[in-house]
Each structure stands twice: as structure tokens, then as C-alpha cells.
Design goal:
It is a single chain. This protein folds into 4 domains: 5-174, P-loop containing nucleotide triphosphate hydrolases (Rossmann fold); 179-239, Helicase, Ruva Protein, domain 3; 249-374, Zinc Finger, Delta Prime, domain 3; 378-384 and 417-525, 2-Layer Sandwich (GMP Synthetase, Chain A, domain 3). The protein contains 23 helices and 12 strands. The longest helix has 20 residues, at 276-295. 50% of the residues lie in helices and 10% in strands. The protein has helices at 5-8, 21-33, 50-62, 76-83, 100-109, 132-143, 163-166, 179-193, 199-209, 213-224, 232-239, 244-255, 259-271, 276-295, 307-319, 322-339, 345-357, 365-376, 424-434, 436-442, 462-467, 470-484, 506-515, and strands at residues 39-44, 89-93, 120-125, 149-155, 170-174, 196-197, 229-230, 387-388, 419-420, 446-450, 453-457, 489-495.
Length: 525
């Protein structure tokens, strides 16, 4: 009968355990010096070697001919433990034996001496699944077991264990296995099994395994069922991945705000039966690599990809900002959470792409920052447009009887005498040097002068938000005074042909409500 690779190539000695040098070295030293603890706790993510090390330790403490801390795997005890015929080594699944009665039976059993082996070894897998009553029943026995008993507890969620259990065990933390170590092990297995495994395919499987050797061997077995010459294309097809080409085309469409291309690519992948949740995870991983390259100068060790893929990632990192990357990562993570409980995964992914390609559809703060970023890189200032300024109506003066030698009043410029501001371009240059976000909002605006008033004509709702910040208000007032030579009151005007219909953009509506009247209030220098 065929035996799957992860079972066939499970390590039989501590020296064969890949990627856990600190754990294996410490255990071998304890075995060599015969300084064994009565209770061990193995913790770490799935597939990192916890159960394998527990079984090796159970054999090593009972081996008749130990070899430098490793079991010989040839003596009667080693062969009996591997075959499951020696009842002194018991493996318990805490997920299905988690009650108080199960632990009480175990507590009564430990008092009996071993029948054949030197030690009775109890391996309790997924120990965090025990109930609180079962933990309490285990405490006393775990603290002071008989001399012939060793407990080995294994768990992937150590934070669920009571502190009273943790303090009674010698703890070993199993880290995620490095990509290079997993790839090396895969090459060794491929050589022994007689099939071909490309280097980039081995690294791709190692990355997909997320630090777990068991997952890597399972993926290799899955690929082997399709072809004995395993390449990146075989891995991509076997695992249902989108492929690096499609992935980078999606990333480019998001960067270019090309909604049509992004949705067309998604439709192609969906028709090809690509898993939408895996696609979302791939996008998160891709943008994580871009974010690392954008933030860290020497990031080669943090981004384990091929040289060709590294060049593409560096090009993407140079073309986007950190604010945009953080917004994309946030949207992708929220989408991944919804995919796990959503009804239609395709709709969730389409909605996600719409938000990423068009920030105006997203009302979060991160989307607002992306819109400001686009405004900062916009077009030059537009020409002067007709303006409609509301001025208070004053009653016409009553005619007076002529007086002898009347003294003419000094001429005063009426506020209603509005004319285009010839120095507005110079004011914008001053603002651009001090506050690029404010300049990005004002670049398409015009200005009118009326007496001691400067009327800024714009329909951009972001102006009201930015100009109410003290720093931007100061920059605006100083720029006006520096160019005009005197302080002026600033008001806001709107284009005469602006439609009065309520805007449908949620961001504009929000800003309209929050600013109430924009900057219609006077700001004096």
C-alpha cells in the first residue's frame, strides 16, 4: 500500500529533524547526560516537528543501544515502539479525550510500573483541548509523577494552557522552518524517490508551506500525482494558484486604477476554478513583499523569491507610496476575513478590486489619503472661471440737499468690486513649498480680489477640511501676505455654473457635513 511522503519521510532520530537545531541539541544533551525532565512541553505552529520529536524522545529514553543521544531504531524496544506493540508508550489525542474521566483513568494508570520498557511515556497531543476540570485533575500527577513516568505535551496554541501547567513543564518552542531548510529537505526526498524537482518549484512549495515541513511534503505529494518533473507551472496548477504572471497583472491594474482590466483578470481566474481565498492570500503575500522592499534597504533575506520576481517587486515598490500599500493591505485583510464566512467569494473579490481601483468608493481614512496623494500629482492651475459671490445688499443712500462747499469723502473700494487676482499663481507657488497637500487641493482653483478680501473659487470639498487645520491656515495667510503685501480676509466662492444637486460621492457628502459652511467664515491675519 502506498504511504504518503510526510509519513514515509518522518524523521526517526533527532539528527534528521530539519530546522530545529536549538531544540534537538538540547534534547540530545539531556539524553547523553541522563538529565531527563519528568514533563516536557513542545509548542509551535503545525508541521514543525513537535509530534515527531516526542516520538523520538519516547524511543530514545527506552532504547537499549542509544547512539549519542539518538535511538538506534534497531533494538527490540525501538522496533516495538514504532510498531505500536509496546503499551508503555501511549499517545493520547486530547481533542477526543478531553474530559475529567479520561485524565483520572490516566492518573490511576501511571502508578503501575512499565511492563517492558524503562519508562512509561505519555504523549498528549493538542493538550490545549483539555477541559479546565481535566487540567486540574492532571496538575498533581504532572508535578510529582512516579520516577518511571515521563509526560510529553504538544500544542499549537500554548496561550490556552493554564499557568499552573506551564510552570510544571520544561518548555521547547518550535519555530517555523526556514524556506531554505524546507527546500533542501524536498530536494533530498525527490532524489531518494527518483523524480525531478526544480529549484524555483521547491522554493515555491516551501513558501506555500508557511514554515511547516509536513505541509511541504503534502504539497510535494500532490504535485507528484500530476508529474514526475515538478516545475513552477506544475505547483501552480496543483495548488490552484493564480500564477505570478496573473498576480503581477492584477497588481499593475490596481496601481493604474484600471477597474476593467482587474475585473476581467478576476473573471478569467474564476472561470479557471482558481480559489478566491487563496488568491486573496497570494495578493496579501505579494503586497507584503512590496511593503518590505519599500521600507527596508536590505530586504533580500526577508523576501525569499527568485531574482526575476525580485526585480518585478522592486519595480512595483518604486511606483507606489507607503500610504497606498497600507490601504491596500487593510482592504485585503478585511476581504480575507469576509471570504471565510461570505456566501459569494467572487462578489467579495470583485468588491475588493472596485475599492482598490477607485478610492472614491471607499470612505475610510486610508482611501482619503490615497485621493489626496493623487491630487498632489495633478494638472496645472486652471484658467479663471466666472464666479458668483454673495455680498450683502445695502440700501441706496437718500439724496441730500446740496450744502455750501461740500467736502468730498475719501474714496473707499467697495467689497463688491470683485476682480480676478493677478498674483494667485505666485501665491500658489508659495503654498506648494510649505504644504503640498494644500497645494494639491488648490491647484485647480482661481482667486478674486475685492477690497481687503481674497475670494478663493473652488468646488473641492477637501479645501474646507485642510484649511481649518492651524498649520495650513497659517501657510495660506502667510503666502497671501507675502505676495499681496498686506494681510487680507479670506473667503470661499463657488463657480457660478456649479450644480446645486447633492453630490453622490460619499466622501464629498461627508466633508460637506463636517465643514458645515466650508471656509465661509472670515480668517484674519
Amino acid at each position: 500500500m502506498y504511504q504518503v511522503l510526510y509519513r514515509k519521510w518522518r524523521p526517526q532520530t533527532l539528527s534528521e529533524v530539519y530546522g530545529q537545531p536549538a531544540v534537538t541539541t538540547a534534547l540530545k544533551n539531556e539524553l547523553r547526560l541522563n538529565r531527563l525532565a519528568h514533563a516536557y512541553l513542545f509548542t509551535g505552529s503545525r508541521g514543525t516537528g513537535k509530534t515527531s520529536c516526542a516520538k523520538i524522545l519516547a524511543k530514545a529514553v527506552n532504547c537499549l543501544n542509544p547512539q549519542d543521544g539518538d535511538p538506534c531504531n534497531e533494538c527490540e524496544n525501538c522496533r516495538g515502539i514504532d510498531a505500536g506493540t509496546i503499551l508503555d508508550v501511549t499517545e493520547i489525542d486530547a481533542a477526543s479525550n478531553n474530559g475529567v474521566d479520561n485524565i483520572r483513568d490516566l492518573r490511576d494508570e501511571v502508578n503501575f510500573a512499565p511492563a517492558i520498557a524503562k519508562y512509561r511515556v505519555y504523549i498528549i497531543d493538542e493538550v490545549h483541548m483539555l477541559s479546565s476540570g481535566a487540567f486540574n485533575a492532571l496538575l498533581k500527577t504532572l508535578e510529582e509523577p512516579p520516577e518511571h513516568v515521563i509526560f510529553i505535551l504538544a500544542t499549537t496554541e500554548v496561550h490556552k494552557l493554564p499557568a499552573t501547567i506551564l510552570s510544571r513543564c520544561q518548555r521547547f518552542d518550535f519555530g517555523r522552518i526556514a524556506v531554505e531548510d524546507i527546500a533542501a529537505r524536498l530536494h533530498y526526498v525527490a532524489e531518494q524517490e527518483g523524480f525531478t524537482l526544480a529549484d524555483d518549484a521547491a522554493r515555491l512549495i516551501a513558501r506555500l508551506a508557511d514554515g511547516g515541513m509536513r505541509d511541504a511534503l503534502s504539497l510535494l505529494d500532490q504535485c507528484l500525482s500530476r508529474s514526475h518533473e515538478i516545475t513552477v507551472d506544475v505547483v501552480t496548477e496543483a495548488t490552484g494558484m493564480a500564477g505570478r504572471e496573473y498576480l503581477f497583472r492584477l497588481v499593475a491594474a490596481i496601481r493604474n486604477h484600471d477597474t476593467a482590466t482587474a475585473l476581467d483578470l478576476l473573471n478569467t481566474l474564476y472561470d479557471g476554478s482558481k480559489d478566491m481565498e487563496r488568491l486573496c492570500v497570494e495578493l496579501i503575500d505579494c503586497y507584503r513583499n512590496i511593503l518590505i522592499l519599500k521600507s527596508v534597504k536590505k530586504a533580500d533575506e526577508l523576501v525569499p523569491v527568485s531574482a526575476a520576481e525580485m526585480e518585478e517587486l522592486r519595480a512595483e515598490a518604486a511606483a507606489v507610496s507607503l500610504e497606498m500599500l497600507l490601504h491596500i493591505m487593510d482592504v485585503l485583510q478585511r476581504t480575507l476575513d469576509r471570504l471565510k464566512g461570505g456566501v459569494s467569494r467572487r462578489v467579495e473579490m470583485e468588491t475588493m478590486l472596485l475599492r482598490l481601483c477607485d478610492p472614491t468608493l471607499d470612505t475610510t481614512l486610508e482611501a482619503l489619503l490615497r485621493r489626496i496623494e493623487r491630487l498632489e500629482a495633478g494638472a496645472p492651475v486652471a484658467a479663471v472661471a466666472p464666479v458668483k459671490v454673495e455680498t450683502p445688499k445695502t440700501p441706496a443712500p437718500k439724496p441730500e440737499a446740496p450744502k455750501a462747499e461740500p467736502k468730498p469723502a475719501p474714496p473707499a473700494e467697495s467689497a463688491s468690486a470683485v476682480r480676478p487676482c493677478d498674483n494667485w499663481a505666485e501665491i500658489l507657488e508659495q503654498i506648494a513649498k510649505q504644504s503640498p497637500p494644500l497645494y494639491g487641493v488648490l491647484m485647480d482653483s482661481t482667486a478674486m480680489c475685492g477690497g481687503e478680501e481674497l475670494i478663493i473659487v473652488t468646488d473641492n470639498e477637501l479645501f474646507g477640511t485642510l484649511v481649518h487645520q492651524d498649520s495650513n491656515k497659517t501657510v495660506l495667510m502667510q503666502a497671501v501676505q507675502a505676495v499681496m503685501g498686506r494681510p487680507m480676509r479670506i473667503k470661499r466662492g463657488r463657480p457660478a455654473k456649479q450644480e446645486k444637486a447633492e453630490e453622490t460621492d460619499p466622501l464629498s457628502a461627508f466633508l460637506r457635513q463636517s465643514t458645515d459652511a466650508g471656509v465661509a467664515v472670515e480668517m484674519k491675519g
